[in-house]
Amino acid sequence: MTDSADATARADRGTLVIADRVAAKIATRAALSVDAVVRHHSGLGAVVGATYPQVRVDMAPSAGPQLMVIVALRWPSAVAEVCRQVRRQVAHDMNRLTGLAPSRVDVSVAQMISSSDRHGGHGIAGRSHARLVELPTAEGEREYRGVGEQA
């Protein structure tokens, strides 16, 4: 089959649309599969507080989906290494399950949770303010750039 005939055949099959919420569920499960990432409810949980992990997805970009993953980590954890693992796992699972390779996966740590925080205590690690941390890419990893950044 020629390239133009192949393109025509693909166009005749229709389109596949993956909802943002489906991609968010995939990314949430991928993040939770990383050892130091914990499911956490702050404040009054889903009522007025926050629940982690949180995922924001934009499936529209032609270059590939863009994801923002906000996590809570078990204290102590090697934050930069865990963030790299989350980024890799989310990108891998998105590609494996949807066939779409994300163009960007941002990971933010909102809280560090000590064992006393998980059992109703008030450890110092439970305080949070989400911040973005730029992580260098390892050789062979795909580099994710922000909107408007130059290569």
Shape: elongated
Poorly predicted regions: 120-131, 145-151
User: The biggest beta sheet, please?
Assistant: 5 strands, mixed
Number of helices: 4
Strand content: 15-25%
pLDDT averaged residue by residue: 79
Radius of gyration: 18 Å
Instruction: Give the proportion of residues in helices.
Output: 25-40%
- Order of helical and strand elements: HHEEEEEHEHE
End-to-end C-alpha gap: 36 Å
In terms of structural class, how would the helical and strand content be classed?
alpha+beta
Number of strands: 7
Keywords for this entry:
151 residues; alpha+beta; five-stranded mixed sheet; 32% helix; 21% strand
Describe this structure in words.
With 151 residues, the chain is an alpha+beta fold. The strands form 2 sheets. Strands 1, 4, 5, 6 and 7 form a 5-stranded mixed β-sheet that branches. A two-stranded antiparallel ribbon has the order 2-3.
